Amino acid sequence: MPEETPLTRLQAAAAAKKAAEDEAQKIRDKGAAQFAEAVVYALTHDGMKPKEVADATGVHYETIRRIARAADVERLREPTVTSRRKAEER
Known about the structure:
The chain is mainly α. The chain has one domain. The protein is built from four helices and no strands. The protein has helices spanning 6-44, 50-57, 61-70, 81-89.
């Protein structure tokens, strides 16, 4: 068995840290996907409005809106003329 040196201890600690970070990222991604799925279901099947979902979850309204747009959830109303014009300028 090779002798443990400061370098090998550091390398082992760095590898363990990287593995833990990778696992944590997988868990975060899975949780985010499950949350987005629940939000979309609430908006499309349960008839909730984005504000109601935001209030019920404690997540900012804009986050709920972005999740809905990413999932192509139908808008509650058409954009105003001003916001449509701003979007076209971009």
